[in-house]
């Protein structure tokens, strides 16, 4: 099924007509920035930060970055913009600085001892796959193979997934396959968990403009959730099979739209 390209003028005119609250939900890696090989080097450019800050400072406009990254990276990178944040694929979220600056944890107690069981398997594959590495977050554990030989890395990831599935049969954990990453997180949580909380806290009836842009598999659950809200606009980045209603061709076009929304 071919989806249409997002009509920017239509989005801008809907935003301009809004008389209540506006909500803008943006993925980070692959949406506002091209995916970087090393997590710590993927920090946003000053231009991206400036556009986000301008948009977030508009009256009645609530901007959130929905990311798979850890809280400390997001806090460090986006503190100057005042936007709301969601970290580790929905495990944590916080509202924009002008509402409340406190992180909420959506994971009910997870026994961290699962990492002790899983880590040796991740280490085994890291040793066998040159260029791969493990990123340990507060809740989630990620194996990155972007810098490995592409064919060998994918093959190892498939094998790791098969071995994990055997181990996980009795654990409440899910495998999340990303862009050259394999991540484990609590089964009860995904990005839509955080979005549900955000919609509830902001009070859905008081929102008359909702725009959500993401590019990865983990954004699909958010598109599905928002597609049930008649006026919500959902868009993926790049043409692909998706739950989103539209697509935006490139990261540059996403940033241009964020910039233009900030000028309304």
Secondary structure: elements and pairs:
Blueprint: H1 8-17, E1 21-27, H2 46-56, E2 61-66, H3 71-78, E3 84-87, E4 92-94, E5 104-105, H4 114-128, E6 133-136, E7 141-144, H5 150-168, E8 173-177, E9 181-186, H6 191-202, E10 207-214, H7 220-226, E11 232-237, E12 246-248, H8 251-261
Parallel strand pairs: 1-2, 1-10, 2-3, 10-11, 11-12
Antiparallel strand pairs: 3-4, 4-5, 6-7, 7-9, 8-9
Fold and architecture overview:
The protein is an alpha/beta fold and 264 residues long. It folds into two domains: 8-106 and 189-261, Rossmann fold, CATH 3.40.50; 114-186, Alpha-Beta Plaits. Helix content is 35%, strand content 22%. It contains eight helices and twelve strands. The chain has helices at 8-17, 46-56, 71-78, 114-128, 150-168, 191-202, 220-226, 251-261; strands at 21-27, 61-66, 84-87, 92-94, 104-105, 133-136, 141-144, 173-177, 181-186, 207-214, 232-237, 246-248. It has an eight-stranded mixed β-sheet with strand order 5-4-3-2-1-10-11-12, with helices on both faces. The chain has a four-stranded antiparallel β-sheet with strand order 6-7-9-8, covered by helices on one side. It is globular. The two termini are 33 Å apart.
